[in-house]
Amino acid sequence: MTNSLRWKRILLKLSGEALMGSQAFGIDPAIVQRIAKEIADAVALGAQVGVVVGGGNIFRGVAVAAKGGNRVTGDHMGMLATIMNSLTLADALRRLKVNARVLSAVSVPSICETFSQRVADRYMEDGDVIVFAGGTGNPFFTTDSGAALRAAEMKCDAFLKGTQVDGVYSEDPKVNPNAERYDTLGYDEIITRNLKVMDTTAIALARDNSIPVIVFSIHSPGALVSVLQETGTYTVVGD
Ligand SMILES: Nc1ncnc2c1ncn2[C@@H]1O[C@H](COP(=O)(O)OP(=O)(O)OP(=O)(O)O)[C@@H](O)[C@H]1O
Ligand SMILES: O=c1ccn([C@@H]2O[C@H](COP(=O)(O)O)[C@@H](O)[C@H]2O)c(=O)[nH]1
């Protein structure tokens, strides 16, 4: 079955907001369990999976700053939010008998392991799912950038962005429902046309390390395995 996968070692970036479900804030356990099942299905097919979960369902530094708070403190809160999301996703994976480990860029040793590339590589070779928490560990970055960084460090074959929409569009499809969806797109087109599906730092890192970026909807059941088997709807961003 492994041979049927287009990309074997993947970095899956999940939008924090995807974990909210229909709530306005926080985590919907049923959604987390459904997403965990998608990951478990990919692992069962032979995929080696690293995951980065955003924190937008709990805190974003820019939102804290917009309300008069300190941006760096807000970013610290955002990074801690990603740790909470990572812990809940790892638990959901373990309930499905998948070995899952949380490795954080921010050290909280009584709660999870601190990220180390060598250790993470060994775990992935063993078939464990690694949930990379804490983003890059630095303020003024996003989890998209953290995910691109980990994809490069772990020599992933692809960076899969599981988000609210089923690909990259000519404009935000939530704002313009008539926007055009692309099947393929160049890294530089995202940057020069300022398409806001992910941040420029993340795209540039993926481009400079020749890692294809696949944007798909995590809300579509079975979407992760479909992408790995080159079926379904998604956009591939490359050269
Ligand atoms: N040109 C575009 N094509 C596709 N999506 C776009 C585009 N411009 C803006 N978007 C929006 O970008 C969003 C993708 O970002 P996402 O929700 O994954 O946020 P995030 O910041 O990565 O995650 P989090 O929710 O954790 O903060 C989509 O939901 C979509 O509405
Ligand atoms: O490397 C990083 C990653 C994230 N942050 C902060 O966390 C929040 C949540 O991440 P999203 O990517 O927006 O989901 C982000 O808004 C930042 O405040 C960070 O500081 N450094």
From TrEMBL:
Amino acids binding UMP: G55, D75, T136, G137, N138, P139, F140, F141, T142, T143
Keyword Transferase part of the UniProt annotation: yes
Family: Belongs to the UMP kinase family.
Activity regulation, free text: Inhibited by UTP.
Keyword vocabulary terms for this entry: ATP-binding, Cytoplasm, Kinase, Nucleotide-binding, Pyrimidine biosynthesis, Transferase
Stored InterPro entries: AceGlu_kinase-like_sf (IPR036393), Asp/Glu/Uridylate_kinase (IPR001048), Uridylate_kinase (IPR011817), Uridylate_kinase_bac (IPR015963)
Alphabetized GO MF terms: ATP binding; UMP kinase activity
One family name in Pfam for this protein: AA_kinase
Annotated organism of origin: Roseibium aggregatum
Assembly, per entry: Homohexamer.
GO cellular component terms listed in the entry, alphabetical order: cytosol
Reactions accelerated catalytically: UMP + ATP = UDP + ADP
Associated pathway: Pyrimidine metabolism; CTP biosynthesis via de novo pathway; UDP from UMP (UMPK route): step 1/1
SUPFAM superfamilies linked: Carbamate kinase-like
Chief subcellular location: cytoplasm
Identification of the protein by name: Uridylate kinase
